[in-house]
Amino acid sequence: xxxxxxxxxxxxxxxxxxxKALLERGDTVAALVRRPHTAAEGVREWVVDSAxxxxxxQRWPADLQCDAVIHLAARVHLMHDxxxxxxxxxxxxxxxxxxxxxxxxxxxxxxxxxxxxxxxxVAESSAGQPIAETDKPAPTDPYGISKLEAERxxxxxxxxxxxxxxxxxxxxxYGPGVRANFLQLMNAIARGIPLPLGSxxxxxxxxxxxxxxxxxxxxxxxxxxxxxxxNVTDGRDLSVSELARALAxxxxxxxxxxxxxxxxxxxxxxxxxxxxxxxxxxGELRLDSxxxxxxxxxxxxxxxxxxxxxTAAWYRATH
Length: 319
Fold this sequence. Notes:
Elements: E1 4-8, H1 13-25, E2 28-33, E3 44-47, E4 68-71, H2 86-107, E5 112-116, H3 142-161, E6 164-169, E7 172-174, H4 180-190, E8 203-204, E9 206-208, H5 209-221, E10 229-231, E11 238-239, H6 240-250, H7 262-272, H8 275-282, H9 290-296, H10 304-318
Parallel strand pairs: 1-2, 1-4, 2-3, 4-5, 5-6, 6-10, 7-9
Antiparallel strand pairs: 8-11
Helix pairs in contact: 1-5, 2-3, 7-8
């Protein structure tokens, strides 16, 4: 059965993959975006350029029917946030904005709201055991705090209004069009730059963007998803050194990984003021994604190898 889905943040890295997956399923897709002429072909574009979705309910088009929302739009994690009050800025977009969209969608007839949260709503690292959805959240930065507050606010709104809330917590997302640290890593590998990653054996969960998009589509359609929180990963966790070697293979570049002792990397991080970045690089961050598999019967349609192949092919074609 096809459905009518509104996607916020539809012109972003994940949003584009989600719209594609919905269109391939035969759904009617509308994109709520801030800039005109950025939605994919076949997607109805709705431009709302107000900050934090102010007035979204009053501006909702009379002819825009909606069964479900996939809410991707967010103030994203920034390494160097220069805002005077970062937590207030994150809350305005990620909490207040999400609740505005949920309320407007509910009044327009939506039955389900899929909120794309983050592993950072729970933790920055895992200690020996993968993080489960039932673990007690302990976010450490304004972004993670705002995502957790949004989860809780939406669950409460769902109880009050009857809107079915589904929370999805991905780890780092990669794929064609990826930016930030993953792109920097590919840049360095493609240029043959020696990297001090040879001794890092801590594993980190990842999710290929098409796997995440497929899971989000399932979360809009499967009645068993209502009221659930799901971790979504590729189902296989690589160490940073394994990831770098796999990318080097796909990029047809040498893997120049220098086995620098972890203790030295920590010292270098402290000396350069980059301890947080080094900790993210050398620390374990694994998610247990068995709940979505057991609850919905969902499994990643693409392997890690396929995801890295597609990402590297995009990189070689565009850089």
